[in-house]
Amino acid sequence: MVFSPHTPEDRAIMLQTIGVDRIEELFEGIPASYRFPELRLPPPVAEADIFRELLELSLRNWSTVATPTFLGAGSYNHYVPAVVHQVLWRGEFYTAYTPYQPEVSQGTLQSIYEFQSLVCLLTGMDVANASMYDGATALAEGALLCVSPPRGRTAIVVAGTVHPYYRGVLRTYTRGLPVEVREVPIPDSLRTTPQDLERFVDESTACVVVQYPNFYGRIEDLAALAETAHAVGARFVVSTYPIALGLLRPPGELGADVVTGEGQCLGIPQSFGGPGLGLLAARMELVRHLPGRLIGATVDREGKRGFVMVLQTREQHIRREKATSNICTNQGLMALAATVYLSALGKQGLQKIAKLCYHKAHYLAQRIAELPGWSLVGEGPFFNEFVVRCPQDPRAINEFLLQRGIIGGLAVGELVPEQDDLMLLCATELTTKEHIDRLVEALRDLTE
């Protein structure tokens, strides 16, 4: 591939356009003593020595592989089958980028097409894209595609039971736009009802946003909430936890117009918080409002099946200055991981994992509720997370648990200050009975 740098004439025109004579003038705002600092690097060492040092550093970390963990809140410790990494490590996938040339990108295009198809099956929606970075940004994009200033639909109503980080990203996305974000207070039940929404929705509401299961683990009544949104002509946006859909009815069957989610649980390691995978699916009527790109199946002149990018209606490389999205790459490798994971598990496998998560979380809740001074908080069914009220500061409890070799739950007060006596606990298929019993014994020792 030929690299064509700027010519001296190109540089001169660019400098003239921005009003400077020399490139060095662009750096005058940086003190001269800091422009070219001396890099005091250690002397070179043998590769084996570097490996040993990095290994020693890594052993300081708490690993969910070797440590019982009860921390969820959006990033979950699920088993990743070996086949997922085996496929990801293939060079043709590992180094693939956006498939602009379909004639040489059929494998990549097909993997994205299969991913979109699986997301639609999982969520019960008509169409899905494959370009979102994580659950929070997917939620923000899903809410914004419902906004329509010409129709007077400029208000987004978001339930207080949606993840605090997701609500924060939504506020960031809408800053500077003619959009109002109305946040519904967190109910004592930790479960949003139609009555909670009624005073926040009106004829200006573009959409109502909820989470399923919600941040506190409770399972919202989607059908009732969707009816409240649709009664004022608003759309209904649901952020979901894909593993839960192995057990729960898909949002598309309960009135959702847009479904988003975090796909990290689908074959992607936690990896210190990233990368994640955003899921975004919608009704067909919204297909031209979706950000990113959509892959479709077709046939060539010889009647052979093939795959192409069929829609990129909002992207910068298509719309230029009229673009309304900047999703200009895609999470192809992460989407492939989710595709392999779901394909390997199948319908029955996903259902089995969801049931394991559900039953282990309920056993954990039962054991903790038996402890003096501890109590479950919230009403209604929950999936694999739940909230407890602690007899001591949850942060101090987590420090104590770390000393016992256990990663505790989320101290909710770190995200919601007014709930500083609550802890959010999680169980997955990797949580064993021995892990739970060990946690309970540690908590008993702490409070006795």
From TrEMBL:
Top enzyme category: oxidoreductase
Record key words, sorted: Oxidoreductase
Family annotation (InterPro entries): GcvPA (IPR023010), GDC-P_N (IPR049315), GDC_P (IPR020581), PyrdxlP-dep_Trfase (IPR015424), PyrdxlP-dep_Trfase_major (IPR015421), PyrdxlP-dep_Trfase_small (IPR015422)
Residue ranges occupied by any Glycine cleavage system P-protein N-terminal domain in the UniProt entry: 5-442
CDD domains referenced in this protein's UniProt entry, alphabetically: GDC-P (cd00613)
Molecular function as annotated in GO: glycine dehydrogenase (decarboxylating) activity
Superkingdom, natural source: Bacteria
Keyword Oxidoreductase part of the UniProt annotation: yes
SUPFAM superfamilies (alphabetical): PLP-dependent transferases
Subunit text: The glycine cleavage system is composed of four proteins: P, T, L and H. In this organism, the P 'protein' is a heterodimer of two subunits.
Alphabetical list of PANTHER family matching this protein: GLYCINE CLEAVAGE SYSTEM P-PROTEIN (PTHR42806), GLYCINE DEHYDROGENASE (DECARBOXYLATING) (PTHR42806:SF1)
The protein, known as: Probable glycine dehydrogenase (decarboxylating) subunit 1
Gene that encodes it: gcvPA
